[in-house]
From TrEMBL:
The chain crosses the membrane at residues 25-47, 82-104, 116-138, 150-171, 208-233, 253-275, 312-335, 375-394, 406-433, 445-467, 496-523, 546-567. Keywords: Cell inner membrane, Cell membrane, Membrane, Transmembrane, Transmembrane helix, Transport. PROSITE patterns: ABC_TM1. It comes from Georgenia alba. It is found in: Cell inner membrane; Cell membrane. Residues 78-271, 369-567 form the ABC transmembrane type-1 domain. It holds the Pfam family BPD_transp_1. InterPro entries: MetI-like, MetI-like_sf. This is ABC transporter permease. It is a multi-pass membrane protein.
Length: 578
């Protein structure tokens, strides 16, 4: 039947297929609506800010551009950004690859729970990560004797904490699909386990490792909250320098030049990530096709029981990383939140119903929590709608080269908000959305829109692998049996889309809940979000304010972990993303 259906579908698209133009119009709208959204709420604010800095009089001022680039301060922050990102990426890869093997290649009791624990740090707000490490490493903290508070090493540890899950999920998702027979053949020919890994497994994992490295580098370069809390201006990055130049010095030209530098780094990282994903998907398709052609008796399971001997080193290293690097900072944050000068007490949590010490807050922490939840719900709805439309369009495999390039370009364009400074986006909102017909400065939708812009790439990355797993022949068969394009979309793509939707909603909600860079600009004093309140409390003197910041960070972390726990329960094996 499949063979008979193929000619019917291949001969149809030559102007005689009923409903051909309505279908094309629908796909054009599916691509056009997200592009309009991104153009209005990302490209326009960012380009306007860059234009005001680089074209102050309507013409490019190369001397001003050169003046910014010759400042020692500029290259100091650029060097620190590259150093932190490179070291953080290297350490994350060294620790994450063994974790990917243990969590995705081995079978043991509690593996699902351990995967969820590893995922939680990635979706935690950067402010919470900074507060957790500061509580652990500061003087008087459990590891205060190491004197790492405010150092380069503390920032790198926090960056690895934040990005460990990216390496584990990306590399592990690829590793779980590798055919173990290649390694078995190498071992049968006399190769040692190390040589078999180096010559067989590692090259096969190359695309996934390259993709993970580029994404981790990107996240390390844009970890605004982590650097602000742990490093301050002593270890400022391009991201924090844009914030300083914009808010403290009002130097839009310097901020614009730094944004251009950041966009260049982001574009390079996204290009590497996209190339790695394409190679990864191509390799997976080849392996799936090869597996489908093999007799059933030759298909073996990739998972194996965790072995005490051969798997001792990666299992031990993974346990040390999970307990020492991931669990300890969060556990220390929780413990410190119950500790005051008077001993163990709930005072910090009771104070969340107040506005803190003198001139600390304008609303209570619980009111800020409600603001964050409302904004996150609105942002999630926007991000899921726009992101799913993008994923539906990009997941298609058009025959024409131009159409394939257009789909790839659309995918890359919607990844840009991951790397462009959220501070740039937030300040761009203030200077563009301030006059009719888009005067949104006092509107409560301004913060959710900014958060949605940041969350859309994660929605796309969560849903896209699921939709790309759909066999195109299923759509062809449905169309050949007379199903309209809308019905094909609903009956073929719809069930797959629902499989990845839970994870997409979880990522969008968690990221929106903890977004800090753009929200720090846009949140009104009477409607601050929880991350903004935590940062304000840290910046105010007094043990009461600091204790409230710890308790508020625990509340935000608990909300984020709960959301991601629910999302993981709805997650299926197809929804790997990165």
């Amino acid at each position: 039947m499949a063979a008979a259906a193929a000619p019917a579908t291949s001969g149809a698209p030559h102007g005689r297929t009923p409903g051909r133009w309505p279908a094309r119009l629908a796909w054009a709208l599916a691509a056009g609506v997200p592009l309009v959204f991104l153009g209005t709420f990302f490209a326009w604010p960012v380009l306007t800010l860059l234009g005001r800095g680089l074209l102050p009089d309507g013409a490019l001022d190369p001397h001003g551009f050169a003046e910014i680039l010759t400042r020692s301060r500029t290259w100091r922050v650029v060097g620190l950004t590259l150093a932190q990102s490179a070291v953080g990426t290297g350490v994350a890869l060294l620790l994450g690859i063994p974790g990917a093997y243990v969590l995705y290649r081995c079978r043991f009791r509690g593996r699902g729970l351990l995967r969820a624990v590893v995922t939680v740090p990635f979706v935690l707000p950067t402010v919470v990560v900074g507060v957790a490490f500061r509580a652990l490493l500061a003087e008087g903290g459990p590891l205060g004797f190491l004197r790492l508070d405010g150092t380069f090493a503390a920032i790198v540890l926090a960056l690895v904490f934040f990005n460990y899950a990216v390496v584990v999920r990306t590399v592990g998702g690829m590793w779980a699909r590798l055919d173990p027979r290649a390694v078995q053949a190498a071992r049968a020919l006399g190769a040692s386990p190390v040589r078999a890994f180096r010559t067989v497994t590692l090259p096969a994992l190359g695309p996934a490792i390259a993709s993970a490295a580029s994404v981790v580098f990107l996240f390390c370069a844009t970890a605004f909250g982590v650097v602000m809390v742990l490093g301050g201006l002593d270890y400022g990055t391009v991201e924090t320098e844009i914030w300083v130049q914009t808010t403290q010095f009002l130097d839009l030209r310097a901020a614009a030049v730094l944004s251009v530098l950041q966009v260049g780094v982001v574009a390079a990282a996204l290009a590497v990530a996209a190339a790695g994903r394409r190679r990864q998907e191509r390799a997976l398709r080849l392996r799936l096709d090869a597996a489908a052609e093999q007799p059933l008796r030759l298909v073996t399971r990739g998972l194996r029981t965790l072995r005490p001997g051969p798997d001792l080193v990666p299992a031990t290293l993974t346990a040390v990383v999970v307990l020492g690097l991931l669990v300890t900072p969060l556990a220390g944050l929780v413990v410190r939140s119950f500790r005051t000068s008077e001993g163990w007490t709930l005072e910090n949590y009771v104070n969340l119903g107040s506005t803190g010490g003198p001139n600390a807050l304008t609303v209570t922490v619980w009111e800020a929590t409600a603001n964050s939840l409302r904004a996150a719900v609105d942002a999630t709805v926007l991000a899921v709608v726009v992101g799913c439309l993008v994923a539906l369009v990009v997941s298609r495999r058009p025959r024409g080269r131009a159409a394939r390039r257009a789909a790839g370009l659309l995918d890359g364009v919607f990844m840009l908000p991951l790397g462009v400074s959220a501070v740039t986006v937030g300040f761009g909102f203030l200077i563009t959305l301030d006059s009719p017909p888009l005067d949104l400065r006092t509107s409560p939708v301004l913060v959710p829109i900014a958060q949605a812009v940041v969350a859309i790439p994660l929605v796309v990355r969560s849903v896209l692998p699921v939709l790309r797993a759909v066999d195109p022949r299923l759509r062809q068969a449905a169309a050949a049996l007379g199903a309209a394009p809308a019905r094909v979309l609903a009956t073929v793509d719809g069930p797959f889309l629902l499989r990845g939707l839970g994870l997409a909603v979880g990522f969008a909600f968690a990221v929106s809940l903890g977004e800090f860079g753009a929200t720090s600009f846009l949140a009104r004093p009477d409607r601050p979000t929880l991350p903004v309140v935590i940062f304000r409390l840290i910046g105010r003197p007094g043990a009461e304010n600091y204790g409230m910041a710890l308790a508020a960070a625990v509340v935000l972390a608990a909300l984020t972990a709960t959301v991601m726990g629910l999302a993981e329960r709805m997650r299926t094996k197809e929804a790997t993303g990165w």
